Amino acid sequence: MRRRTILLIDDNQSTRRQRAIMLVTHGFVVRAAERVEDVELPFARPAPDLVLLRVNGPPDRSDSAYMLIRNAMPGQRIGFLLDDGHYLCEVFVDGVLVRPREELAGDLIESVEAMFEGKFQDSAKSVCVGN
After folding, report:
1. Which CATH fold topology does 5-127 show?
2. For the residues 53-67, what does the mean pLDDT come to?
């Protein structure tokens, strides 16, 4: 079985590294970038199974990054990594994931797996936490 590839976009080097390590240790292939503009969309090969986009401000700040991905790869599954539960909103149509801290590593992996299994909408409220 092919390992799933995750494109991780996070402008904070420390959290980007932490998230990448968590995901790699759970069997995912991770490609990381500081900004969406650093990734040559839609030419990222192999195409990621999931894009994780860090949101560290109100939704309008992440709209342009989201739209760059959505326009380049219309069918791409996108998850949002939140730094604060206040930013939960319907603009995040594909899913919202937790801000990973060491004690939340299991929640991050559980959320990613739920997105791959198509159960994310059912489990989102129980898995998503802020701060």
Report:
1. Rossmann fold (3.40.50)
2. 68
Q: What integer pLDDT is reported at residue 42 of this predicted model?
A: 59
Domain boundaries, the chain: 5-127
Q: Return d(Cα 29, Cα 7) in angstroms, integer.
A: 9
Whole-model pTM: value is 0.68
Q: What is the pLDDT of residues 12-41, one digit of tens each?
A: 898 889 889 989 999 999 989 888 878 776
Q: Which residues of 92-128 are buried (b: 16+ CB within 10 A; e: fewer)?
A: bebbbbbbbeeebbebbbbbbbbbeeeebeebbeebb
CA distances to 65, 97, 120 from 112, in Å: 20, 8, 8
Kindly give the residue spans of alpha helices, DSSP state H, lying in 26-72: 59-72
pLDDT value of residue 60: 57
